[in-house]
């Protein structure tokens, strides 16, 4: 039986704490919960309460900003009520919504949980494509059956490729997203060495010819 707590530990590790990157499409986030996507989330009252008692946010990317975010995260981590609403948010909106408790393999359940948190329904579409079912982002009986009938190792290898290829295409289309490639590709099982090669190629933006070569590199990995 798959375990929510195990999967959630991976997700929270990947999501981190408070961030307000102007290039992030989701805007301000706390533990991966984006204010633009979830403006009515009850947790924002805790975040805003702490922010009201600290200095205004410095420019993103500066040492002052990093100190600001670190201070906020320390304060927010001490709020037990906030940490509980974070946990409840993830369980209801992702673990339960995508029927992850019905998946047989823990590694597959954890991967899907991590990717729907990161990419929403698109994360489910990546795994559906790998499993050979309609990639509509809706996890129903057919998707669950296909996932559970697949070899977990082979399924995740294919899903990781599908996800990584999407990230590369997105970064090629919008250079402002290149900065997110390292964290995205780590989630997709791409090695540190390969990520270094990707970022070297992306220093001046990614051409579609470069993307094609990077996809071949990723596909060829053991």
Automatic annotation (TrEMBL):
InterPro entries per the UniProt record, alphabetical: Lysozyme-like_dom_sf (IPR023346), Peptidoglycan-bd_3 (IPR018537), TtsA-like_GH18_dom (IPR008565)
Span of domain Peptidoglycan binding: 123-187
Domain TtsA-like Glycoside hydrolase family, chain residue ranges per copy: 10-120
Superkingdom: Bacteria
Pfam families: Glyco_hydro_108, PG_binding_3
UniProt protein name: Uncharacterized protein
UniProt organism field: Oryzomonas rubra
């Amino acid at each position: 039986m798959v375990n929510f707590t195990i999967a959630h530990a991976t997700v929270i590790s990947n999501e981190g704490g408070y961030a307000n990157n102007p290039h992030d499409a989701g805007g301000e986030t706390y533990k991966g919960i984006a204010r633009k996507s979830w403006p009515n989330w009850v947790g924002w009252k805790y975040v805003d309460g702490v922010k009201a008692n600290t200095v205004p946010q410095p420019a993103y990317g500066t040492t002052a900003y990093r100190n600001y975010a670190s201070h906020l995260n320390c304060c927010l981590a001490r709020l037990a009520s906030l940490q509980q609403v974070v946990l409840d948010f993830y369980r209801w909106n992702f673990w339960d919504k995508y029927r992850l408790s019905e998946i047989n393999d823990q590694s597959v359940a954890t991967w899907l949980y991590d990717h729907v948190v990161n990419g929403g329904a698109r994360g489910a579409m990546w795994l559906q494509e790998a499993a050979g079912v309609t990639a509509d982002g809706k996890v129903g009986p057919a998707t669950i059956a296909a996932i559970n009938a697949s070899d977990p190792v082979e399924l995740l290898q294919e899903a990781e490729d599908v996800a990584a290829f999407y990230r590369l295409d997105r970064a090629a289309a919008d250079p402002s997203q290149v900065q997110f490639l390292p964290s995205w590709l780590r989630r997709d099982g791409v090695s540190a060495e390969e990520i270094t090669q990707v970022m070297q190629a992306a220093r001046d933006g990614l051409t579609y010819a470069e993307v094609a070569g990077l996809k071949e590199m990723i596909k060829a990995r053991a």
